[in-house]
Amino acid sequence: MTSETMYILAGVLLAALAMHRLCTARDALARILALNVLSVGIAMLMLLAGRVAGVTDAVPQAFVLTGIVVLVAVTAALLSLAERISGGDDD
Question: CATH number of the domain that 21 lies in?
Fold first, then answer.
């Protein structure tokens, strides 16, 4: 198996496990973590798609970096919202 095949399998496996967890989880924290795992799987697939004949294209790398920044912001907002909904104390 080549390294590219391993990346494809890992990305698809991460995305599939995250989708399964999103569908079966009842806890908000588990769903937020599943979204993070899903984004990592998609990022792996996007990075591999940008690699043509051993040369890496810069555009998919830029998209992945932008996605990571957006993911951090969305994760922070979702965690804050989940804590507020669950009735977390303000101490």
Answer: 1.10.287
